[in-house]
Specification:
Largest sheet: 8 strands, parallel
Bound molecules: (4S)-2,6-dioxohexahydropyrimidine-4-carboxylic acid, zinc ion
Radius of gyration: 19 Å
Number of helices: 12
CATH architecture: Alpha-Beta Barrel
Strand content: 15-25%
Shape: globular
Distance between the termini: 19 Å
CATH topology: TIM Barrel
Strand order of the largest sheet: 2-3-4-5-6-7-8-9
CATH class: Alpha Beta
Length: about 350
């Protein structure tokens, strides 16, 4: 197969930041995707609908001229989130959910939730208004091994949450383990998961074998090969509970190539090509369109896109840098290229 035409995809998990970086990265996303769920972990975090609308305007202004790209905003859940704010989200046409960061789990998560049970009234309201909860699923206690943090979260926190709020729509973001995949598969239609390109393409050797490679460091961290295989199986299964969310997370190169480097892989420049690579490795390109273009929209109760994009088998070398950001697969070859 040398050409692949798909309904235009959406990215259901994306970091675009603010300021100069935003200009670079939003152009990449808007080239490929019709819509994206925008993560709210700015400094300070986006905690109210009012703040989200200001951020949305900044994103729209940063878009290349003529772009029809739509940012779908989210709010950062904190210990202070009010019931009124949940109602405002339910009534907003631009805000699509709350993101739960356990405090300390990742980049700019200090303001995250430290006591989930104290927030149960807020979750109750989200369930009532059918507002989705997007979860960074890792425990944060220092005693828990970093490679176990997702599986422990699923077992201890998520299973309780789902029992207590059986109708709450939940996206377990960027799943990285067999345990998370099995959990999502075993629950109702209201529980789904996003999968990143890096977790489909790499296992933890990419970060650590033969030298430390900070551009493969993201959170949740890459896991063993058996987990990667479980993710590939889920993504290519045709099960609508699994859909595309890049978690493209730009950091300037020097902040990753650092004694204490930031977490995040930058994939927005060629996200659909990276997924195509992963799907082709298991002869599942026929499953890419559902994963990339249909299942996320269906879960968020939004119309599917109608335009198409075409990928061509035409190998190209990924640049070393995009305006100071080292991309995933920098200076390596990608087999597919989207036609512009
Ligand atoms: O690797 C990550 N980077 N994981 C996250 O959860 C956050 C993200 C970021 O914002 O840099
Ligand atoms: Zn993220």
């Amino acid at each position: 197969m040398n050409n692949l035409t798909l309904i235009q995809p959406d990215d259901w998990h994306l970091h675009v930041r603010t300021g100069a970086v935003l200009n670079t990265v939003i152009a990449h996303t808007a080239q490929q995707f019709a819509r994206a769920i925008i993560m709210p972990n700015l400094k300070p975090p986006v905690t109210t609908v009012e703040m989200a609308l200001v951020y949305r305007t900044e994103i729209l202004q940063a878009l290349p001229q003529g772009s029809a790209f739509q940012p779908l905003m989210t709010l950062y859940l904190t210990n202070q989130t009010t019931l009124e704010e949940v109602q405002k989200v339910a009534e907003s046409e631009h805000v699509y959910g709350f993101k739960l960061y356990p405090a300390g789990a990742t980049t700019n998560s200090d303001a995250g939730v430290s006591n989930l049970t104290a927030l149960y009234p807020v979750l109750e309201a989200m369930q009532k208004y059918d507002v989705p909860l997007l979860i960074h699923g890792e425990v944060t206690n220092a005693e828990c091994d970093i490679f176990d943090r997702e599986a422990v979260f699923v077992e201890q926190t998520l299973s309780e949450l789902v029992k207590n709020f059986p109708d709450l729509r939940i996206v377990l973001e960027h799943v990285t383990t067999e345990e998370a995949v099995q959990f999502v598969e075993s629950t109702g239609k209201n529980i789904a998961a996003t999968i990143t390109p890096q977790h489909l393409l790499y296992n933890r050797n990419a970060i650590l074998a033969g030298g430390i490679r900070p551009h493969y460091y993201c959170l949740p961290i890459l896991k063993r090969e058996k987990h990667r295989l479980a993710l590939v199986k889920a993504a290519t299964s045709g099960n609508p509970k699994f859909f595309l969310g890049t978690d493209s997370a730009p950091h300037l190169t020097h902040t990753k190539e650092n004694a204490c480097g930031c977490a995040g892989c930058y994939s927005a420049y060629g996200a659909i090509e990276l997924y195509a690579e992963a799907f082709e490795q298991v002869n599942a390109l026929d499953k890419l369109e559902g994963f990339a273009s249909f299942f996320g929209a269906d879960f968020y109760k939004l119309p599917r896109n109608t335009k198409t994009i075409t990928l061509e088998k035409n190998a190209w070398t990924v640049p070393l840098s995009y305006d100071g950001i080292t991309p995933l697969k920098a200076n390596e070859t990608l087999a597919w290229k989207m036609l512009l």
